[in-house]
């Protein structure tokens, strides 16, 4: 990372500049991950922005299988299925917005913190209705990406990861990298950011390393490949550097004993 960019992102770390990166750009990482996993991940089922936001809010600190089961339970109980033939067609979530907190909490029981998430979800849907005049995020398609993200981050419980997921994973399909806990940990271990970097700082450091011709779909694939690495190789409990495809280009891995 250029010194000026590092100083802007990490003012407290200027006196302790991070190590030099061992990889050229994210394409370098992507090539290694694609070879290791044997190709790109399964294409994502793309949803409308509001459904993606609901999923992102419910899925924080929750395993993928439980998150998928939770969104299915919400769809079944509150009629949240697409109104057209495609998964990204608009979904009407008014029944979820108007449901009681106990009903929502009961439907979220597979997710972590269902009590807290039920309150937050209802508040979020009510807030969207107040601000947009209707319960829909379709109008965001007319905005620039930074404006869309700022709009989403003003909603209850929606931070930088949720805003990146909405713009990148949903039918908006804009360039952004959603930084979950796995991605954050791996970026730190790779030497991209200092150990105390936030998700926003990690994304700000990684996006300039993405080749200019990377599309939103490429960034989505990169997110998924890195997440899989974090789930199975570079885990929270242990970094299994000896069997990691990024070892040669990783500051932590290259310093570890063989
Ligand atoms: S080499 Fe080790 S620390 Fe680096 S990404 Fe791989 S498992 Fe994580």
UniProtKB/TrEMBL annotation:
One matching Pfam family: HhH-GPD
Record key words, sorted: Endonuclease, Hydrolase, Nuclease
SUPFAM superfamilies registered for this protein in UniProt: DNA-glycosylase
Top-level taxon in the UniProt lineage: Bacteria
Matches recorded under Gene3D superfamilies: Helix-hairpin-Helix base-excision DNA repair enzymes (C-terminal), Hypothetical protein, domain 2
Domain annotation HhH-GPD: ranges: 58-232
GO molecular function annotations of the record: endonuclease activity
Keyword match Hydrolase: yes
Entry keyword annotation includes Hydrolase: yes
Coiled-coil regions, chain positions: none
InterPro entries in alphabetical order: DNA_glycosylase, HhH-GPD_domain, HhH_base_excis_C
GO biological process: base-excision repair
Protein name, UniProt field: Putative endoIII-related endonuclease
Originating species: Terriglobus roseus (strain DSM 18391 / NRRL B-41598 / KBS 63)
């Amino acid at each position: 990372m250029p010194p000026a960019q590092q100083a802007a992102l990490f003012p407290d770390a200027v006196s302790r500049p991070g190590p030099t990166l061992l990889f050229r750009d994210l394409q370098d990482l992507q090539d290694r991950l694609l070879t290791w996993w044997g190709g790109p991940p399964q294409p994502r089922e793309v949803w409308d922005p509001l459904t993606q936001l609901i999923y992102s809010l419910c899925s924080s600190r929750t395993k993928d299988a439980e998150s998928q089961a939770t969104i299915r339970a919400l769809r079944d109980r509150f009629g949240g299925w697409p109104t057209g033939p495609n998964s990204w067609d608009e979904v009407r979530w008014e029944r979820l917005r108007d449901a009681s907190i106990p009903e929502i909490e009961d439907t979220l029981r597979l997710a972590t913190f269902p009590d807290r998430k039920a309150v937050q979800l209802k508040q979020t849907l009510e807030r969207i209705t107040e601000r947009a005049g209707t319960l829909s995020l379709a109008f965001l398609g007319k905005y620039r990406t930074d404006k869309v993200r700022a709009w989403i981050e003003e909603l209850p419980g929606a931070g930088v990861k949720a805003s990146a997921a909405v713009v990148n994973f949903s039918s908006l399909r804009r360039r952004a990298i959603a930084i979950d806990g796995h991605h954050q940990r791996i970026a730190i271990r790779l030497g991209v950011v200092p150990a105390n970097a936030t998700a926003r700082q990690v994304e700000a450091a990684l996006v300039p390393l993405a080749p200019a011709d990377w599309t939103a779909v490429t960034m989505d694939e990169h997110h998924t490949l890195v997440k899989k690495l974090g789930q199975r190789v570079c885990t929270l409990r242990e970094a299994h550097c000896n069997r990691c495809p990024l070892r040669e280009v990783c500051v932590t891995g290259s310093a570890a004993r063989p």
